[in-house]
Amino acid sequence: MNYESEIICARCTCLIISGKDHFFEVKIEARSDRSAPNLDDLAAQISDPSAGYLALIGQLRSVSNQEAMEEVAANRMIFLCLPCFRVWIEDPAGGSS
Ligand SMILES: [Zn+2]
Tens digits of per-residue pLDDT, 19-62? Predict the structure, then answer.
């Protein structure tokens, strides 16, 4: 049986053949801050709870479902060829130059 499959490197777009080429599967799992907000601070900002609730609903209407989900969590999976992985792993956030 042949278990080879073709994958594209997310960085250089070279063709990777699984079972033949050396590559990395990179899973990125991002989560927003899970700590609870300071409710005293929030309460101080809202003098009228009904108006605050309506304002929040208004804000949510302008956000797509995908955008709302990605404000909480986002997952990505990419494949990197070996040369691209070696560069990426040294600076995964891309901040150094
Ligand atoms: Zn590559």
Answer: 899 999 999 999 998 887 777 777 777 777 787 778 777 877 88
- Quote the ligand 1 centre to 74 CA distance (angstroms): 23
The CA 59 to ligand 1 mean position distance, Å, reads 40
Supply the mean pLDDT for the chain. 86
Dist. CA 10 → ligand 1 center (Å): 7
Q: What is the pTM of this model?
A: 0.67
For every residue of the chain, which 3-state class applies, written as one string? CCCCCEEECCCCCCEEECCCCCEEEEEEEEECCCCCCCHHHHHHHCCCHHHHHHHHHHHHHCCCHHHHHHCCEEEEEEEEEHHHHHHHHHCCCCCCC
Distance 3 CA to ligand 1 centre (A): 21
Ligand 1 center from residue 15 Cα (angstroms):
8
